[in-house]
Structures are given as C-alpha cells and as structure tokens.
Amino acid sequence: MRKHQPLREVSLAQLRADLATASVADLYRGRGDRFVWIIEASGEPCGWITLVVANWDHGLAEIGYALSTQFHNRGIMAQALSLLLPEIFLRTTLERVEARCSVDNEASRKVLEKLGFTHEGTLRSYFRLRGKRIDHSLYALLRIDFLPKLS
User: Per-domain residue ranges for the chain?
Assistant: First the structure.
C-alpha cells in the first residue's frame, strides 16, 4: 500500500478506536468529519475507504482508499466504491466528492474514471513520498453527474 501513499504505522487497537469514533448514522445526519469503512474479500480484511467531510454547508468531501497488494487487479475497490457512492449521494447532503492519487498510480486513476470521476487537474509536488515530491491527479464526482447514472 505504501508504493503510492505515505502511510503511517497504525496499531490494530488504534484502528479499532478510529473506527469506533464515527458512526455512519452521523454521516446520514450531516454530522462528523471522518468516516472509515473496512473492505473485505471472502471475509478477510483487504483494505479501507475513508471519507473526510471538508464542509457540510458546501457539501464538500474527499474520498481516499487503499487495498492490500495481494488483492489488486480483482475489481474489489471499484466494487466497494460503487456500493458506497450511492449511499453518499442519495442519503447525505454532499454535492462534491474529490479524490486524489499519484499521477503514477494508473490503477487508482482507472478506478476513479470507471466510476465517473472527472480529472480536474494535476496538483504539482503534492506530497513527499520516500524523500521525493510527488505530483497528484485531482478527480471529482458531483451529485448532478452521479444521480443520472442511477436512472
């Protein structure tokens, strides 16, 4: 997972504590700022999705995700996100969901494009990874673009 992201070490206890702090019910009530879902494949944890609400008044959020290497190239992330996005756009007031990924992370870019996210630009020198500044692609999915797909 660290090939394209500067992830920090997190203990299982800390992960459980983080998961316990935010309730999906709060998401549906338009409260809270960080939500995490664990992705499972065949009953085994294989990754996660985070949703960080930047501003409820303006309906802005950012989605992030990671998948363990051994689960790559199986369509798991696209499937997980395709289950979550309708929940976000049909059951919350969020209007815009952004996602960022390394310009070198072709698999992540393909997932976003498959799900209808629009590439909006490149964020130059966005963060440091293994001592090197990395450019990122900025993607966004708008409620008005997503909802017609449900018809």
Answer: 12-150
For 78-107, write each residue's pLDDT tens digit. 999 999 999 999 999 999 999 999 999 999
Distance CA 99, CA 84 (A): 14
Longest dimension (CA), the chain: 46
The whole-angstrom separation of Cα 97 and Cα 53 is: 9
CA 99 from centroid of its chain's CA atoms: 6
Query: Residue 87: in which H helix or E strand, if any?
Result: helix 76-91
CB 84 within 8 A of CB 64: no
> What fold does the segment set 12-150 form as a domain?
Aminopeptidase (3.40.630)
| Pairing between β-strand 44-55 and β-strand 60-67 as defined by DSSP bridges | antiparallel
20-44: pLDDT as tens digits: 776 888 999 999 999 989 999 988 8
Q: Are the C-beta atoms of 140 and 63 separated by less than 8 Å? A: no
Q: Which tops the pLDDT comparison, 99 or 45? A: 99
